[in-house]
């Protein structure tokens, strides 16, 4: 579980570092922070994580553990004493106040309340957690530029399609869904494999025309006949790798 937490932290943090305004950034920030803090607390104070029945305890709860257990510094941060891979003592300062403010900002945005905006300082405080030996995989994940570009492209493509869906309205979307099976039969009469429709990850209708099926949901190559969301071969490949990793991490 520690390996997966570290990977999820690095993956989400790399996306925010590359594009602080990426669509869905609030949820990505929460996912990065809760996984990163859970990995740190599980290594430093294992009993504290065992108390929680959740797979990933809440970020706010984990910050409370760090505030209680680590030494407060004159600048308000909390110093966690740890050792590096060679057994040498080291310490990292966790900016608990800024991270708590980041949680408030994401919750406000996600629930439609004007509680604040996710700022660069919130992301910087998140990235600083990578200095803890329980994490430390951020540079490795960031170095895979093709993965990062595919991930960012898909996030923006989903947002574009969602805006287009809102533009055409519910009635037009429902009419397009009804026409979808006829449409592909008309244009692909000699391709029975190409007439498959899948649920679309953006509009939710069974209108995603598969060019090539994939093993995991919402990762195949194709385009939606309702909202126009399109998934290229490159994006499909990297989304499949992401989905696959969730199945291959050890459940320690
Ligand atoms: Zn769609």
Structure description:
It contains nine helices and seven strands. The termini are close together. A four-stranded antiparallel sheet has the order 4-5-6-7. The chain has a three-stranded antiparallel sheet with strand order 1-2-3, covered by helices on one side. The longest helix is centred in the middle third of the chain and has 43 residues, at 145-187. With 252 residues, the protein is of the alpha+beta class. A hairpin with a 6-residue loop joins β4 (197-199) and β5 (206-212). It has two domains: 2-142; 146-248, no CATH class. The structure holds zinc ion.
Number of separate helices: 9
The CA-CA distance between the termini, in Å, is 5 Å
* Element string (H = helix, E = strand): HHHHEEEHHHHEEEEH
Overall geometry comes to: elongated
Mean pLDDT: 87
């Amino acid at each position: 579980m520690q390996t997966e937490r570290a990977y999820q932290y690095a993956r989400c943090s790399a996306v925010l570092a590359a594009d602080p305004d990426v669509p869905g950034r609030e949820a990505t920030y929460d996912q990065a922070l809760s996984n990163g803090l859970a990995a740190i607390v599980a290594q430093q104070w294992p009993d504290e994580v065992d108390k929680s029945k959740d797979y990933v305890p809440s970020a706010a709860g984990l910050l409370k553990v760090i505030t209680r257990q680590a030494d407060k510094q004159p600048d308000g941060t909390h110093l966690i004493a740890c050792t590096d891979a060679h057994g040498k003592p080291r310490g990292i300062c966790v900016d608990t106040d800024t991270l708590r403010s980041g949680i408030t900002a994401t919750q406000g945005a996600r629930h439609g309340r004007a509680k604040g905006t996710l700022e660069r300082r919130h992301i910087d405080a998140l990235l600083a957690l990578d200095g803890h030996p329980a994490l430390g995989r951020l540079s490795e994940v960031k170095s895979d530029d093709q993965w990062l570009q595919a991930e960012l492209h898909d996030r923006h493509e989903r947002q574009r399609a969602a805006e287009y869906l809102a533009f055409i309205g519910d009635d037009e979307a429902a009419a397009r869904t009804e026409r979808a099976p006829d449409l592909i039969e008309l244009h692909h009469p000699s391709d029975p494999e190409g007439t498959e429709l899948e649920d679309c990850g953006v509009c939710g209708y069974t209108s995603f025309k598969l060019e090539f099926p994939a093993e995991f949901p919402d990762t195949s190559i194709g385009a939606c006949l309702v909202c126009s969301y399109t998934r290229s071969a490159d994006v499909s490949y990297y989304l499949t790798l992401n989905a696959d990793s969730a199945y291959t991490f050890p459940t320690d």
